[in-house]
Structure prediction request, 315 residues.
Amino acid sequence: MILLPIEKLIFTIITALLVFDVFWIYQKSIYLDVGGYFFSAVMGLIPLALGQFYRLRGREAGLGDVLTASGLYILFTIAASVFNYMFLPISFEPIDEMLMRADNALGYSWPDIVTWISQYPLVGTALHYVYLTSLPQLLVTIIVLGFTGKRRALHWFLLTGSIGALLSICFWIFFPTFGAKAYHDLTPEVIAAIPLAVDPAYGQELMRLGREGVAYLSPRNILGLIGFPSFHIFMALMSVFFVPRNTFFIAVFGTLNALMLPAVLIQGGHHLVDIFGGTICFAITLPISRYVVERLDDKKMPANLKSNGAELAAD
Prediction:
């Protein structure tokens, strides 16, 4: 395969995660939806293979970059989501009570804000769809960066997402959280008023997994285990930071991710402090990934891009 340095690093991380996943699936005797994961893997392997095909041809460099990055992105997502599940049942006490005390000090209540927004069904429904744009936004960013020739920014983007996900998982292993939705109820009227991406039943299932672990693993029933830090906020910050400095993209991504903050709280069932956690995680990850890109990339970074990270993203 023709993989560039950052792509090789991410491919190595994916391979290591897969080895770890397979080992622990066997050790824990977890029943695996082989067909489901095979299909998911093919969804990543096809663009990766096509990207390699275009690189071997030595043409359509942008298309090769986009397809290769998309394939790695999908494969990493699969491997990392399974990796997170290998640490169930949890070995440490959840820190949700501490986070809820912080929320109370800030005057925040998840059931109160959901109950309030349920009085405005159109707004609540709009936030539901905004919440669902997180992953598509990342894919659009990959496509735009690749086709506009911003390979260095694309690699920085991919590595930031990979490192951020691993840091979030590692933090969650030692300080597990299930989010506000696991500790509060909503009235049937509120639940019926607006669509919710997660609800108290979702939170209760997370708590059950935390106690009992997983016996059957399928891409169709994978849940988002991590409450703190909020990875939806991390992804929103990635989208805003890396999107090319173009009026159209700034307007679209800026609007979507301004709305992502209330969407994450309401639709994601998060504690308010989860938002700060996601922001801190992004602030830590971004310079680390930039440093790695600068060290591993084949070409030296242009002098005009060294002074400001945002300039690199907009290159």
Notes: Residues 300-311 have pLDDT under 50 and may be disordered.
